[in-house]
Amino acid sequence: MDARRVGGGRIGATRRALPLPMRITNGLAMVSLVLSSFDLLRLCSDRGRPLRFPLGGRELATVVCQLASVVYLLSLFAHSDAPATSGDDDEGGPAADAEPAPMHGAGMEGGDEEIVAAVVSGALPSHRLESRLGDCRRAARLRREALRRVTGRGVEGLPFEGMDYQAILGQCCEMPVGYVQLPVGVAGPLILDGREYHVPLATTEGCLVASVNRGCRAIAASGGAISVLLRDAMSRAPAVKLPSAKRAAELKAFVEAPANFELLASVFNRFIFPITIQLIACLGSVMVPMATFLPFCIFAVYSSRTYRAKCSRFGRLQDIHCALAGRNLYMRFTCITGDAMGMNMVSKGVENVLGYLRNDFPDMDIISISGNYCSDKKPTAVNWIEGRGKSVVCEATIKRDVVQKVLKTTTEKLVELNIIKNLAGSAVAGALGGFNAHASNIVTALFIATGQDPAQNVESSQCITMLETVNDGDDLHISVTMPSIEVGTIGGGTCLASQAACLNLLGVKGSIHDLPGANAQRLATIVAGSVLAGELSLLAALAAGQLVKSHMEYNRSSKDITKAAS
Fold first, then answer.
1. 198 flagged as catalytic
2. Catalytic one of 205, 250, 256, 395
3. Which of 223, 362, 555, 558 is the most exposed place for a label (fewest CB within 10 A)?
4. Nearest residue to 397 via CA among 482, 474, 483
5. 104 is catalytic
6. Quick check: is 399 catalytic?
7. pLDDT score at 385
């Protein structure tokens, strides 16, 4: 086994075992080291009170703190060369889609047979393999073998090699046994806001990439599209219950009162690091004379302010809107979240506020951190009206000759089709935010390719497509309005190599230090621009009667299905 994998796994296990986040634990160790060093220097320089053995209580505590801090910090540096992720470049193994041979005794590493047997018998739960072994790749391999033995069915078509199993631990997927391959096509260039984008789409539906590509071609031939970001606010709405409707109304009035917003915002935006630094500074000022401790006090205050200033650029509360149902209250918190999609960020802030509100409303019973008024992964009117995530409108004016030559139809037919299908037809169906031809097709393909949460396609695909003739009826104006595009360029699936590559292709990978949130906002506009292209092309295919013909040509395999299945 690769020793570097074991080292990386041990570090991951150590980090997970810590009761506090790694950065806070490291900070406390550094603070302890500085404090104990200052105190030892003072004691050593005090001629009137020389160090004597056995050490007194204070001297012993100082020495223990010094040694503990040094040992902890050295333990980190000792494994600094061990990667946190498990690469496969040095394995010299089979291709990415190769299936590991079934393991029978001699084909397994020492102890593997016993571990697989324990998983099969139930003595060792499958979800504990990573923490037990400290090697995520080995855990996935053994879990895969245990699955084969339990079910009697192999998963030979499910790739195993080529995935960084350490990277997905605690972030993307639990109990992995492999990964699913999806083809990624590229449509474009999409000319949007004066920039060119080649849009990656992960899909198994034939015609989709070709259709979006045709829409991009029509938009480019007409001068490009323009987008506007209307709002950027992720939401979370906890549900609480009070003894009476009157009491619930009192809490609603308190939360929504403008005079209380700054107070609640300060609680929502609270961070533990500055508070920890300030607390340690206060304790340290008691332990060490002020003349010696003054430099550290200045450093602590400066670090606290610097950290708070950095955090103020994202995760800031914007608004609170409440809805009441009997004695149940739903409080919808919205905040900006930088380049992260931001659900976890908002949830942490909401927990802070709920804890604070209990001081004045001790009879408040917290039912759930999410009360479905958020609303996440469900088509709802509140998202359609108020928006969630990024609210974007994108438009383009398509020239008449482009409509005829590229789209093979006329502006009049497209406008009539949009009214009868997307507007009236959707109304007859009782659609909620579904006044479009196939926005979810493009949103889902882009989400999968760029590491977004595919389930959030539900609200992110809420879209109304509008078409009308302009310039004395010669040209076609098309727009899509999407109030709830939920995307991020950091966190979640964006850490995976394939998805990160697609984000990099679009020029929105990661975060821009001086412009937090800019990449995620631009990704949202790219989603809207791609939907615009897809809507334009599909409506043209429907108006020209080409939909069935194109799907029969591009979405039907000529292979013998019986032979492929065998």
1. no
2. 205
3. 558
4. 474
5. no
6. no
7. 96
Helix (H, G, I), strand (E, B) or coil at 538: helix
Q: Which residues pair with 336 in a beta bridge?
A: 316
Annotated catalytic residue, options 241, 408, 421, 551: 551
Contacts of 148 (CB under 8 A, 6+ apart): 102, 154, 155
Catalytic option among 198, 377, 408, 421: 377
- Give the residue with greater pLDDT, 282 vs 121: 121
Name the DSSP class of 495. Answer: G
Q: What's the mean pLDDT when you consider all of the chain?
A: 83
Q: Which pLDDT score, from 0 to 100, does residue 69 have? A: 73
**Intervals of CATH 3.90.770.10 along the chain:** 184-231+390-554
C-alpha 325 chain-centroid distance: 31
Q: According to the model, what pLDDT value does residue 7 have? A: 40
Contact in structure between 287 and 38 (CB atoms under 8 Å): no
Least confident range of 222-231, 248-257, 308-317 = 308-317
Averaged pLDDT, 316-320? 93
Q: What is the 3 state secondary structure string of 509-534? A: CCCECCECCHHHHHHHHHHHHHHHHH
Q: In this structure, which CATH number among 3.30.450.20, 3.90.1200.10, 3.30.70.420, 1.10.600.10 belongs to the domain 235-368?
A: 3.30.70.420
Nearest to 539 by CA among 449, 452, 455, 476: 476
Task: Answer whether residue 551 shows pLDDT above 90.
Answer: no
Q: Is the pLDDT of residue 87 over 90?
A: no
Query: CA 76, CA 301: separation in Å to the nearest integer?
Result: 26
Question: pTM of the prediction?
Answer: 0.75
> Per CATH, the architecture of 184-231+390-554 is what?
Alpha-Beta Complex (3.90)
Geometric angle at alpha carbon 149, from 148 and 152, rounded to 5°: 70
Rounded to a whole number, what is the largest CA-CA distance in the chain? Answer: 99
CA dist list (Å): 241 to 15, 235, 327, 333, 353:
37, 20, 6, 17, 15
Q: Which are the contacts of 71, defined by CB distance < 8 A and separation ≥ 6?
A: none
Distance separating alpha carbons of residues 528 and 485, to the nearest angstrom: 8
Which of the four pLDDT bands, split at 50, 70 and 90, describes residue 14? very low
Of the CA atoms within 13 Å of residue 495, those in its CB half-sphere come to 16
Residues of the chain with CATH 3.30.70.420: 235-368
Is-catalytic flag, 205?
yes
Q: Spot the catalytic one: 386, 453, 475, 535.
A: 453
For range 351-355, the mean pLDDT: 95
pLDDT tens per residue across span 242-281: 999 999 999 999 999 999 999 999 999 875 444 444 444 4
168 pLDDT exceeds 70? yes
Specify the residue for token string 């009539």: 416
Token pair recorded at residue 555: 């979405």
Q: Is the pLDDT of residue 98 over 60?
A: no
Q: Looking up tokens 């906002």, which residue turns up?
A: 521
